[in-house]
Input
Amino acid sequence: MSKLTRLIVIFLLFTIHHSLSADEGMWIPLLLNKNIGQMQRMGWKLSAEDLYSINHSSLKDAIVRFGQGCTGEVVSPFGLLLTNHHCGFGVIQRHSSLEHDYLTDGYWAKSMDKELPNPGLTVTFLVRMEDVTSQVLEGISDSLPENLRDALIRKHSLRITDEAKKGTHYNASVVPYFHGNQYYLNVTEVFKDVRFVGAPPSGIGKFGGDTDNWMWPRHTGDFSVFRIYTDTNNLPAEYSKDNVPYRPKHYLPISLGGYEEGDFTLLFGNPGSTKEYLPSFAVDLIAFKENPVKIGLRQKRLDIIGHAMDTSRLIRIQYASKHAGIANYWKKMIGESRGIRRANGVAKKQQFEEEFQNWTGSQDVDQKDFSRILPMFEELYNKLYPIDMAAIYLREAGMAPEIFRLALGAGELIKTAGDKTVPEEKVNAEAMSLLQSTRGFYKNYQPLIDQRITIEMLQEMQDHMDKHHLPDRYEWIRKKYNGNVNAYVEHLFSTSLFTDSARLYAILGSFKRKSARKLATDQAYLLGQSIKERYSKDVLPAGKAITSVIDSLQRIYMQALMEMQPDCQFYPDANSTMRVCYGQVDGFEPANGVTYNYYTTTRGILEKEDSTIYDYAVDQRLKELIASSDYGRYADDDGTLHVAFISTIHSTGGNSGAPVLNGNGELIGINFDRNWEGTMSDLMYDSEQCRNIILDIRYLLFILDRYAGAGWLVEEMDIR
Ligand code: ARG
Ligand code: ASP
Output
């Protein structure tokens, strides 16, 4: 290649690739000074230090990871915390009973002493972070074998976290960024007394249900309210009635000023996982091979459960949460694959890869043999494909029947009983505790539903899996039942100890060491065990052998991408650590000829109302309040009450409950979802199509103040 052609190629590269749109990215809070110029041009009025500082309190001190998978924000000097209704859902459900159905009716503490404790629920603040790449990678050369590399990294990380924790009550972890090219220390503080303050009824907090999930236009009042408590020194403590409300270092002021199209928005949260730098082979695998199989299997389960829920109120209650859990990512994957197809995602990646390959051919770069990366990826992903499919069938189909989870839970008891050194009383006590723990299972269980699911799932595995990946038990089904899955499962459900609580309680209630044989030879246990073993002893290790090479290659690919585009500002894939994302309020065009507005109002709630459909029944009191149109200070300039709005912020799972701020750092909304057309953003962000969905803070305040009569909470806040 002549010098000139090489220059042209390089020039083209810079113009085509990774020319991130201003909205794309999930940025490390510590490094925002690199973004601040662009942010300020877009409308951010504060500094980078105002967002993250270790010298004085900053916005990050008002942000928490709520539980494991969500975000929340402190909004008062007394530790009051906002997050989503769907993030608090489990907690709200645990406090609910037939007499106090907080899920259906909502709950509002009338004073602090009515705020309810939640054992196990934590919130985690980021104390500080630090680039520790050079310490972690010290003495690690490119030629070091991967297993030695991993061992050294573990050793160095341990030393760094020990050092960081010394003399404090903090937690610390060293986390890889950019696929192991960089490492950051995250020091965190965990609070363990988090009380439930209030939540609207499902008719508001979950309005639109699974039907509206992942959809715009949206009218869900998806929020719940909590409070952090501490010991009298303002330090984290286990629950105690003597604990006092937390005095935060910082809490977010709230703006009633609203927003216009084009306004700057900023989100501070804990995005879980994205895969933006995959090669085309991987995107193709996920979008067009993995997703369709998973979607199809989930569809079958949803049909069975959904149909049963329509026929019985009891079943609706029993299966609501399970159904929502299966449906959430089922729908997300449909959107993701459609989005990738529509955007020609695989072809775009391929086009980029062609240029990457050309770049590696230019002599300036050859030392690291980057030219072999893509061919190796191709080979590895081809190898992975059949194992990956087997893994998906075993996980999504094989582990779908609830009965297996229950039966495998007896594994420990069987083991204990087999150990002659354990006294009989201890075996018996373990059986009693197993009996207790299964009560919750049967409360929400319908064997007929599970039987239908088991038949369908086993059949799917038999029809679609490679014979040598099928669990051993299929051999037995072939011999004993002539391969007739239906007959086998019917027999299993009618005879297993686990499918009938009375049968199981009878044996666990007066358990003898020798009763263990009955559990261990139970058909549900045997089949569950056989599926689990095929997965964990066979398919998983085979997959890992390939994916660990892929991971190492991805690290080198990432390094190459950065070398190839030195002027591009890269952001690391989400990894459940704190990030800042920003964009602007913006509508979008979901299809040719269709334009979506950037906000919704309460009018849409009445338009969607349908008292015959569970998800669209509107709360009576809310209806009256809307009818009176008296929104006071919560109204927009045009007199309407906005419910939700959208912006171009690049977000993902884990950002639910995260605060959305205006250019002044004031809270204007709470993130809760993305649009269906844009769920591909986990693989490839497209500023034309990807939007995050935000609850308008004014609707939240209106509900608190006017609907719930919880004005005392509003008074704690700094409202501007
Ligand atoms: N789609 C949102 C998020 O990914 C909300 C999910 C909760 N709602 C539901 N209907 N499942 O998690
Ligand atoms: N609803 C998601 C969450 O729970 C957010 C998203 O995926 O956009 O974190």
